[in-house]
Amino acid sequence: MANAATTLMNNFRSYKTYTLKYPVATPDGSTITEVTLRRLKGSDQAAYESQDFNAEKDGYKITKFFLTRLSNLIPEDIDEFDQADLQALGKLITDLVTEGKSED
Predict the structure, then answer these.
(1) Which residues lie closer than 8 Å to 71 by C-beta, 6 or more apart?
(2) Which residues contact 53 (CB under 8 A, 6 or more apart)?
(3) Global pTM?
(4) Which of 53, 55, 62, 78 gives a 20 to 30 Å CA spacing to 46?
(5) Could you give the CA distance from residue 8 to residue 69 in angstroms, rounded to a whole number?
(6) Residue 44: left (phi > 0), alpha (psi -120 to 50), or beta?
(7) Contact at 8 Å (CB) between 45 and 66?
(8) Mutual orientation of helices 83-98 and 59-70 as an angle, nearest 10°?
(9) Of 2-6, 33-37, 39-43, minimum mean pLDDT range
């Protein structure tokens, strides 16, 4: 359940939330049922560019990189996500990265 601040930020389109099709149990006994991503900042873009990823070969690494930067997830939790959820989250990340860019 989202708190008031998260709800307010969602209303301003600062965050996007994805509900997992296949929830993940964590070692502490809790269950991850959704992932909330914040919008990309300049520091995120700079960190991404410094990684020297290969966009054609490093799809999972790129998705994992952005999930750890834009959410409160840890890499070990992301490793347990179902492929269907990873693909949907990858698309959501792409939408966040390209949102607001010119079509020219």
Answers:
(1) 35, 36, 37, 38
(2) 61, 62, 65
(3) 0.79
(4) 78
(5) 21
(6) alpha
(7) no
(8) 70
(9) 2-6
